Amino acid sequence: MGNEPEVHRPGTTSTHRFEQTFGGWALIVGGTLLFGALLLIALLPPAPAAPSELARWVQEHSFQLSMSDELMFFAIVCSTPAIIILLRTVRLSRPVSSLIGCSSLLLAMTLLGLMVVIAGRLVYPVFGIAMSDDSIALIVSMLYGTLHCLELFAAVGLIALGFALRDEGVWYLLPVASFGAGGLQILGAFPWLTPAWLNVTATAALLFWTIAVGLWLRTTRP
Description:
single chain, 7 helices, 0% strand
């Protein structure tokens, strides 16, 4: 009936332990790949305002854009299951904040997938179709606009998970790391206005958070 205690089948705990170990490593690897991808973008010189100069800008930095594109793809592959496992781990103790946090991070992964397509169109040919200067200007604007939305969703996710991860024993600093990294994502959400060092700092804070939470996920009890 509805009030009967939950029956734990043999092997359930070991399965959860495997999930958490896998999720922890996946989050660390995904965060490292994402750091590399966003770092390459953060280190790009400012894009010229004149559309006629953007084609040269893209050509000069095509290697950085293409490498960032590849890293973003594999970051999605690693981070998406890790976020789902994180939600499964904390949803019972903190249902609302964990749902808001993890769903926001999953939306950020969706936007990261859109960035893969946008950045890929800049550097990879499609049927040999040439792009006009105005088309390149539009795609570059969409690339940075999508990055802006991604970092805002990441900020919401990290701040919400700061509430979900509170009071975690020896990991009591996880909320502080979540709130700090979330705040830096907000500050770095305007990469066309903020200096490169601030964008790099925000990206490094996100990497630190993924490593800390990944290690916590590996060591916490199911």
